[in-house]
Amino acid sequence: MEIEVPGLERWIDKAMAHPHYRDVDHDLESFGICLECAQVQDKSHHGENAVKSADSGGAVMKSDN
Asked: pLDDT below 50 — which residues of the chain?
């Protein structure tokens, strides 16, 4: 998904104008989790048992223990 940030390209151009630096490429990355995973994660911080499973790709899963 591409997000427009007013002034960002101008800021990047200014930063890359440094005399001892040559811009080859640039990326801005943002990471997050879906709403369902966030709700499960929030519940785990409020006393419910939860475990992170490597098989689930790191998603937080509710434990029956």
From this structure: 48-65
Cβ atoms of 54 and 46 closer than 8 Å: no
> What value does the CA radius of gyration of the chain take, rounded to a whole number of Å?
20
Write down the pLDDT at residue 40: 84
Q: What's the one-letter identity of residue 55?
A: D
CA angle 46, 52, 55 (to 5 degrees): 155
State the pLDDT at residue 45.
61
Q: Is 54 left (phi over 0), alpha (psi -120 to 50) or beta?
A: alpha
Pairing of strands 60-62, 50-52: antiparallel
Contact 52, 41 (CB under 8 A): no
